[in-house]
Design brief:
Layout (H helix, E strand, L loop, with lengths): L8 E7 L9 E2 L4 H6 L10 E3 L5 E3 L3 H8 L3 E8 L7 H10 L10 H9 L9 E4 L15 E3 L2 H5 L3 H23 L2 H21 L2 H4 L10 H14 L6 E6 L8 H25 L6 E7 L18 E6 L6 E3 L20 E2 H12 L5 H4 L12
Parallel strand pairs: 1-8, 1-9, 5-11, 5-12, 6-7, 6-8
Antiparallel strand pairs: 2-4, 3-4, 5-10, 9-10
Length: about 375
């Protein structure tokens, strides 16, 4: 296995809705946590300690295994100044790395353009799911979006055309409201055909794949299995994108959040095992992010939009452990009297993966120089 950055592949997983970081990486010995959280709280017998202060939600046991193996980096307190707590604008900021104005170019699309400047491979960037996330969108940069590998392989021409029309409609509805119609129409004109060409190239991938790993029957596991299949087909993909929805836990968080982190952690651990079984894990890093954390205090049934969340990185070449600092839980330190403060800027984490993993200059993409971490083995 070569270790040149030219082979390195980044898999980005978006947790849509704002993951409750405090109930994922739990400050299980901190009195402020138990004072602030009355109902949406994990007791000490519901967590798996990693040190005297922090523990992993026991529902995410596969994360504990990966952490113990040194394959999981926990990035604490990720955010940006004056965090925006609207889902739409919050995601927008993470997708474009532009907190102060409406950005029209996705950070990963810009990376794809640097990795494949002439746009020769429509599979350099691949999104698993419907439409195209803004992070992967930039005029003139081909990115392939595929909803379901199995299904696509058996479609006829008419069905494929309908699928493309549907993808374009989804695209319009996402972007129209964000960046007006001009660039959208131009973008769709250029990308609709790319999407089809890329999907056609992927139509036989499902049949070629064999693995002893049995992924669970849930959305994120299926998406990461598709990432594994495409990666193992060796089609030159360098950036993958997948999403896991349901994290907007204003109500009924205690039944829903444990299942989410269970599904997520199982899917990531199966994905890494799958790559390892095929001797294909050396050059893959997974970055997991969400648009914001949740508030310190619960609302009796769930948690409301907050700041100061967390991100995660996984892989064979990750130096596992804790990065940045867990935000202070002392009420005197809360932002706006109700929130965790951020302790590291997300643009520095983007910079870390862009420069140290993909060998792409970060400052033009993240619009400046931000503190990076050093999570990769030499």
């Amino acid at each position: 296995m070569s270790n040149s950055k030219a082979d390195n592949t980044l898999v980005v997983v978006q947790l849509t809705g704002g993951n409750d970081f405090m109930n994922t990486i739990v400050p299980y010995t901190n009195k402020h946590y138990y004072d602030a959280r009355k109902k949406v709280v994990l007791s000490q017998d519901q967590v798996l300690p990693i040190n005297d202060d922090l523990a992993i939600n026991a529902n995410a046991a596969p994360f504990k295994r990966l952490y113990d193996e040194g394959q999981m980096a926990i990035i604490q307190g990720i955010g940006y100044p004056n965090s925006n707590r609207s889902h739409f604008r919050g995601m927008d900021i993470w997708h474009t790395a532009e907190p102060n104005k409406i950005g029209s170019e996705g950070w990963l699309a810009q990376a794809v353009q640097e990795l494949d400047p002439k746009g020769e491979n429509v599979l350099t960037g691949v999104n698993i799911g419907q439409g195209l996330p803004r992070a992967m969108a930039k005029t003139g940069v081909p990115v392939t979006s595929i909803g379901d590998l199995e299904g696509y392989g058996v479609m006829n021409k008419i069905e494929k055309d309908q699928l493309r029309d549907k993808a374009i409609e989804a695209f319009k509805s996402i972007y129209g409201q964000a960046i007006g119609t001009g660039p959208v129409a131009e973008y769709i004109g250029k990308t609709g055909l790319d999407v089809l060409e890329g999907a056609d190239l992927l139509s036989s991938v499902a049949e070629q794949y064999k693995s002893s790993i049995e992924y669970a029957d849930n959305a994120i596991a299926k998406s990461l299995r598709d990432v594994a299949r495409i990666h193992l087909a060796d089609l030159g993909t360098r950036v993958f994108y997948a999403s896991h929805g349901g994290y907007d836990t204003h109500a009924n968080e205690m039944p829903s959040h444990p299942k989410l982190v269970g599904d997520l952690s199982g899917a990531i651990s199966d994905f890494l095992d799958d790559l390892r079984e095929h001797d294909a894990g050396e050059n893959v890093t997974v970055l997991v992010f969400t648009e914001f954390g949740r508030r310190m205090r619960d609302n009796g049934s769930g948690t409301d939009h907050g700041t100061g969340g967390g991100a995660f990185m996984f892989g064979n070449r990750i130096i596992g452990g804790l990065y940045s600092e867990y935000p202070s839980l002392d009420p005197k330190e809360w932002e706006h009297g109700e929130d965790l403060k951020h302790t590291i800027d997300f643009r520095g984490i983007y910079g870390t993966v862009l420069e140290q993993w993909l060998d792409v200059e970060a400052s033009p993409i993240v619009k400046g120089n931000f503190e990076q971490i050093t999570p990769f083995k030499a």
